[in-house]
Amino acid sequence: MKRITIIGAGFAALSTARKLRRLNAEVEITLIAPKAELVFLPSLIWIPSGKRKAEDLRIPLERFLHDSRIRFVAGEATGLENGGRTVLTNNGKVENDGLIIACGGRFIKKLPGIEHAILPCEGIAAAENIRERVAALKQGNIALGFAGNPNEPSAMRGGPIFEFLFGLDTQLRREGRRKKI
């Protein structure tokens, strides 16, 4: 029997696992992630304005994993051996015949001046940090921005940052703080 290992528990990892299961009822699928949960990243923009809380964005995966007959390994991938046929985790090794890495992007803050920026798409902790900073702000400016991929102009999507901006604007107006911020 073939053994497929998927690293990650986001949209790409879960849709891949589901598709694999539909294509082959016998394949052994192992999912490696820190927790058996999906964080619904599109709603991160609503945490700073208080429209959503962290627990609203965490979706337990136990039922999905059970119903799809997917083995779950709680841990973080720390390396590969044997050309990717062995995944090293902080909880041991996972052997496979095929490996899919779908653990999302990593946010590297190497640009000068960005080291103090908070990126909402980094996850729940970053979105909560933005909420706390906005709550503590008495006056000043909030700077928002987005960038595209110069090698793929069609990859630039500014919609979420504008939703985020308008959510903050609405919040500040409701609180009577918009004229100062």
TrEMBL record:
It comes from the Bacteria. One of its GO terms (molecular function) is oxidoreductase activity. InterPro entries: FAD/NAD-bd_sf, FAD/NAD-binding_dom, SQRD. Gene3D superfamilies: FAD/NAD(P)-binding domain. Pfam families: Pyr_redox_2. Residues 3-132 form the FAD/NAD(P)-binding domain. PANTHER family: FAD-DEPENDENT PYRIDINE NUCLEOTIDE-DISULPHIDE OXIDOREDUCTASE, PTHR43755. This is FAD-dependent pyridine nucleotide-disulfide oxidoreductase.
